[in-house]
Amino acid sequence: MSAKQVIGAFLGVVFKIVVWAIIIMLVYKYAIYGYTFGFEVFSDRPVATAATGVTVNVAIVEGKSNMEIARLLKEKGLIEDANVFYVQLMLSDYKDKIKPGIYDFSTAMTAEEMIKLMAEDPNETEEE
Known about the structure:
By secondary structure, the protein is mainly alpha-helical.
């Protein structure tokens, strides 16, 4: 076996090792991201505690998409991640029931509580 063949074989093995290392790192990175995203979707934690919660007034205008609502709530500091809220909304029973209006949300509310409030009939909540 010549020196060129030995070097070529060695470089081929090194290249394969590097490619596999990159693949493993990418799989690990996206597995961690997927787990974290899933945890955030299903844990439904509020931004603040009940003691430190702040009330924020939000106007939901007719024709806003669910993602636009999620971005608005993120801008107001009511949620941490608009994508997580969007998925929570799409998985909820209220995904097509959001009503326009002016809402008072607290940073101590969970996403589920905000979604339910936006989907309820305002007349029903006044009667209770």
